[in-house]
């Protein structure tokens, strides 16, 4: 209320503003005398803290692609050492003029394969894994640019939600796009024996060259029901977040501009983005915790057998 009067006091008198508000509203509004007393006292301790938090919230929101809603903002603030409640976070976000961003519909990029798809469904919609490099999901999406379409392929580890491989190309050919993402994931994992790779029935994932690469790396190929998006829901969720958090926020010139921005987004997704399925932690933190515990457990076994 004080800020409202400050904004309009040069256009209307303080008395006029206070009288008008009190006439048209039911109680609780400030009088001209109360306004002047409040100005004389200065800002309260709460107002000073709120002002600082509002600026901090704007900064956190901006650094996270402007997509955090109340829940993620609340967790981000608490992870940063700020003791704050969820309702207070919501109030301050309203003051800051920021809000979360919901997901749009995922685009369809699947081209039905001409050859028979004999891959079994090894997942059965159970997108869970006991550790990293046990279950990967893969999918392709597209980006519209001023010079034409650009296609993006992602490979995501189900355990940590970490994007372990990705590629961009102006072509959806297997060798130019999904195979590049797969190779990146394989090199990053080092050990891939026993990994399950789950995807849709797109021609790229059914191709001989793609499945030969899986076989060479000891990876088992898996797919779901034809035409059922839920059978690859986690991969499509990654695509939806990519489009919503990055691609739909601006107009793109060409493949190079998209590639640079995608590199930055993937790094943020893996290193900093809070995922509610990970108890509001980033993928790299979850993986590092797992490997630390595994290493500690192995050392204990060695000592016990020594």
TrEMBL record:
Coiled coil: none annotated. Residues 99-119 are annotated as: Disordered. It holds the Pfam family rve. Gene3D superfamilies: Ribonuclease H-like superfamily/Ribonuclease H (3.30.420.10). Residues 128-291 form the Integrase catalytic domain. InterPro entries: HTH-like_dom (IPR025948), Integrase_cat-core (IPR001584), RNaseH-like_sf (IPR012337), RNaseH_sf (IPR036397), Transpos_IS3 (IPR048020), Transposase_IS3/IS150/IS904 (IPR050900). Involved in the transposition of the insertion sequence. PANTHER family: INTEGRASE PROTEIN, TRANSPOSASE INSF FOR INSERTION SEQUENCE IS3B-RELATED. This is Transposase InsO family protein. It comes from Arcanobacterium wilhelmae.
